[in-house]
Amino acid sequence: MNDADSSRRNPWKEELGFIPHSPGAPEAINADSFEEDVLDSPVPVLVEFWAARCGPCRRLAPEMDAAARELGGKARIFTLNVDEELEAAVRFAVHSIPATLLFVNGKEMARLIGVVDRSSLVNLLRPYLETPPLEPPSMPTISWDDTEDIAIALTETFPDLDPLTVRFTDLHKMVLEVPDFEGDPAASNEGKLEAIQMAWLEEYKDLNG
After folding, report:
1. Which of 52, 38, 72 shows the shortest CA–CA distance to 10?
2. 22-55 residues labelled b (16+ CB within 10 A) or e (exposed)
3. CB 201 within 8 A of CB 164
4. Rounded CA gap, 1 and 176, in Å?
5. DSSP string computed for 43-81
6. Could you tell me which residues come within 8 angstroms of residue 11 by beta carbon, excluding any fewer than 6 positions away?
7. 34: CATH
8. Cα dihedral sign for 200, 204, 206, 207?
9. Which residues are catalytic?
10. pTM for the whole structure
11. 174 contacts: CB under 8 Å, gap ≥ 6
């Protein structure tokens, strides 16, 4: 096998283990920065515990890289060499590598042992990723047929006005100014205006005794 083939088959140097090779790739981490980068992180964090001597760790590396690129800034992904940071491995009871631990708000939420694919890593994180804000619910609208709603609105706006003194031409204009009314102005007719006036009259009587 020539040098070119060896580089193509094994893009991570053995003495260093996993080397980030593209924007957004996993980052190496050590015990000194673990608290700040992982436990205090405002976004979910995956940490792969690995070692250069570990063959399965090398097979996991490209999956970690793919997951990091897919997730972008929604989460952070780190690698930690247990041969160099044994205390961290003991702290989190990592007895087998590769082990991928998920931290959210400073707490371990889940872990995966062994080689897993990109989708498994992303799916592990997915429940903890920030969801886009929901669209505000649409407010119900009022049409010419919603006589009771119109009557209530008119009573609230004109509590002292006797509906029987209002001409239909004026009533038409008043209805068009009711909040949330979206009826077609041309869809009104005498029958609808009379129904509104009678419903308004009932509300007026209830209010004024």
Report:
1. 52
2. eebbbebbeeeebeebbeebeebbbbbbbebebe
3. yes
4. 83
5. S-EEEEEE-TT-HHHHHHHHHHHHHHHHHGGGSEEEEEE
6. 19, 21
7. 3.40.30.10
8. positive
9. 54, 57
10. 0.52
11. 154, 157, 158, 166
What pLDDT was estimated at residue 22?
39
- Domain hosting 164: range is 147-208
Q: Per-residue pLDDT tens for 135-177?
A: 656 667 899 999 999 999 999 999 999 999 999 999 999 999 9
Q: Tell me the pLDDT tens digit for each residue of 63-119.
A: 998 988 888 778 889 999 999 989 988 999 999 999 999 999 999 999 999 999 999
Is there a single domain that holds both residue 122 and residue 42? yes
Give residue-wise pLDDT tens across range 7-64.
333 333 343 433 333 335 678 888 888 999 999 999 999 999 999 999 999 999 999 9
Is the residue at 135 inside a domain? no
Judge if 95 and 157 occupy the same domain: no
User: From the CB of residue 170, how many other CB atoms can be counted at a distance below 10 Å?
Assistant: 10
Q: Which amino acid is at 79?
A: T
Token output for 208: 């004024």
